[in-house]
User: Fold this.
Amino acid sequence: MSKGWLSWTRSNDKAIIDVLVEQAENLVKATSTLVELMTKYENVAECLSKITDMEHEGDEFVHKLFSIIDQTFVTPIDREDISKLTSSLDEILDYTQVPLTDSCYSKLIHPLYL
Assistant:
């Protein structure tokens, strides 16, 4: 398909849905890592690094999705709904880091030491 003056009118349904799926999968991985850390209390630095990397990757998904939406005339879902969905997924991912900040995590006590 050539990139003519009407190329902006094409629908990017697959690209939009694919990014939303990737973003959701990234969120599941991050929350699974958080659950694993909170239940096993092992490899704290490694888990923190993984979650931080996944959070940055999640930010990239948001930017990528907004870029696709800006270049799309017809979206498979209402633009505002896509925006709210991707922003909500990103916000949840941001919250996975909260328990792992130095000030919060240092106050957690391993159950064996109670």
In short: The chain has one domain: 12-102.
